[in-house]
Amino acid sequence: MTEVVAAVIEREGRVLICQRPAHKARGLLWEFAGGKVEPGETKAQALARECREELGITVEPGEVFLEVTHAYPDLTVHLTVLRAGLAEGEPQLLEHADLRWVTAAELPGFAFCPADGAIVQKLRQG
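The structure assignment produced for this chain is given below.
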């Protein structure tokens, strides 16, 4: 099982979503910022590193928003979603094909990675 972290980063009533690069697994599907937890890292450290590497931002990881396990055809992920504050920088397209700040009501209009469906559902419930 692969340990993965993702961030719910909110600003002015909107949440940050990112579109995966076309050449990667689940290419062009939308996701929440994050990635794999490397050996020796805490989940908070992994989230901070991934946001720095992929978006050029500094985040302050907060409490756990939710956890979900999802089996894809090529791997099974245990996804820990943390709320995170945007501490420094403006998100940049260093890795993703696109990024958007959207309201919870707009989330169903985007095709998300299946593991992220639970995040979308919880955000929509408020």
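Interim note for the steering committee: The domain at 1-84 is CATH 3.90.79.10 (Nucleoside Triphosphate Pyrophosphohydrolase). Helices lie at 43-55, 117-125.
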